[in-house]
Amino acid sequence: MPRVKKEAERLLALKKFGILDTPADTLLDDITILASKICGTPVALISLVDENRQWFKSKVGIDASETPRDIAFCSHAIEEDQLFVVEDATIDPRFRENPLVTGPTKVRFYAGAQLKTSSGYNIGTLCVIDQVPRKLKNDERIALEALARQVIVNFERQQFSVQLKDRETFLANILTMLPDLVSYIDKNFVYRYVNQAYEKFFKINVNTIVGKPIHQIIGEGAFQLAKPFMLKALAGERQDFHLKMPYVIEGDIRTNFMNAHYIPDRKESGDIEGIFIVVSDVTELKLAEEIALQKSDELTKALEESKKNENAFRAIFEYSPVGIINVDKDLNYIAVNPAYEQMLGYSEHELKTMNVLDITLPDDRDVTKNSRPKTGNNNYLKRLIKRYLHKSGRVVWVEVSSRAVKLLPDSEPVFFAVIKDITELQNLQEQLDLERQKSIQNAKLASLGEMSAGIAHEINNPLAIISATLSYLHTFIHDPEKFKQKIDALQRAVDRIAKIVRGLKKFSRSAEPIAHSIESISAIVKESIMLVEAKAKKHDVEIKVYLDESFNISCSEIEIEQVFVNLLSNAIDAVKVLSERWIQINARVDENSIIVHVLDSGTGIPKEICDKLFQPFFTTKPIGEGTGIGLSISKGILEDHGATIEFLADSKNTCFELRFQRCG
Fold this sequence. Notes:
Blueprint: H1 7-16, H2 26-39, E1 43-49, E2 53-60, E3 66-68, H3 73-77, E4 84-86, H4 99-102, E5 109-116, E6 122-130, H5 138-177, E7 181-186, E8 191-194, H6 197-202, H7 206-209, H8 214-218, H9 220-234, E9 239-249, E10 252-266, E11 272-281, H10 289-305, H11 309-319, E12 323-327, E13 333-336, H12 338-344, H13 348-351, H14 365-370, E14 381-389, E15 395-405, E16 414-421, H15 423-472, H16 480-507, E17 517-520, H17 521-538, E18 542-546, E19 552-555, H18 557-575, E20 582-589, E21 593-600, H19 607-610, H20 630-640, E22 644-647, E23 655-661
Parallel strand pairs: 18-20
Antiparallel strand pairs: 1-2, 1-6, 2-3, 4-5, 5-6, 7-8, 7-11, 9-10, 10-11, 12-13, 12-16, 14-15, 15-16, 17-19, 20-21, 21-23, 22-23
Helix pairs in contact: 2-5, 5-11, 10-11, 15-16, 15-17, 17-18, 18-20
């Protein structure tokens, strides 16, 4: 059986079309009928030569759908570059013993025009067949070759359409995940395309934006600032600029720092039809402004040079300031962009030999695996914050937005992800948390300083008892009953001192994060009262507690104790000058919360002061008697516990309400 040179490449070119064993095609059937009519033969075929067979994509005058390749006339035809003609097969030594000649089909005449692809491979023929010998006229030869070229045009057009659709799907999904605002407006300043980022930014469904004038979306103020740049772009000048833009979002004006790039859409005729717009919100990334501008400029230049969808996607992928990756279902890398390489220090070649989990911090591997989108639903987006290990060994914090995409209806989903480096933001947050911990510790020490005199008095009292009792204890050596009573009195004094010291030691403990545990609010309040009890006695302030010991919350006991110490100390300072001096703590429960009220005998707080109560460093106490951060820190501690604090302005007496999540 004949075999052409580069047979493997020829077969690959044939299979890429995806035509073998597909249903009939009306357009191709018309070409086959036309070939039969022009050449005056009863049989005409579009024959594709596979590895071991020739298969008929279209046929006239024959029932068979394929024949073995080793007896096929077309196997000889594809070895030639010119029209292959056999005028009488019975006298041709190559075919006179062929079963197609000697058998029922009685082939005598054959003419086959090669189906040559644009890459130069003969994948089959358009052939005509007769049962009588004959010659092919010159105009019939020309027509048969022309029709063969039309068959290839049809094949390659279908192949190109599938590839183009895949690329458009790929590009659309990438544009959907980009955090930048990407849009296209026409000469009348009307939106013709916006990506998904517009919906998140403007809080408007993207489908309602297309078709509307730009000023109706971004607001008249922002439009007037941007309009001069749009006019220059419509005149053919690319515009790259940085502006402080007053956008209208949900009826309110919000100011954002924006990097904008306007690229004229210049057609082949030279006319400008509209503007490609790429806008980046750099309000939170001003520290990285120089890098962002450089990357955006590269992206702009790439978009300007791009005339087709494939080029536009390549520019976005290559020049995006954020990382973009494509991985399979097992998280093996398929493609990565330069920003991702730069972010982690690995080259694309290195990454393609690795798995996402290989460079993920061990503690984050499970959450990475579990965050993979489960389906190919293009609207299902997953986000998570995780840590990578840079090639140098340092930790890189990132925000990952991922989506599963099916490029074809029956294909396995692949995963696309956009990765933003948030290491600097994470480091700033850690510094803020550290400063907050220091503030909490300083506030504790300040509280201890304010209470120190009273606590010293509380310790001195039992010490005096111990000293006095010890001085005459020997006089009761012969009276066992009284001797035991004095020993018990000494033990109570020692226990009192130990309890105060334990409370001080626990209260002054470091403000570093402590694991939460289930604690009784009643027990926490009692410990807090012990620390302010001396101060309360000094000013003759009565503290009354009405708490159910079954009221439990999940908390850091030390931090919640600090909140109550602060509220009790403030209340003592507020009522110590009044004729009626008392503090009351009570609690109740509803379906999901425990509500605690801390009241005192005061008659409330002026409204102008209420609005500032929880502001840092605000205090009404004289200089040296308060820092002004107690309530601010208390509010922060409660928020970290999922709890709230509120001053009840309508209460008859001064009252703060605390709401905790109920536990048990």
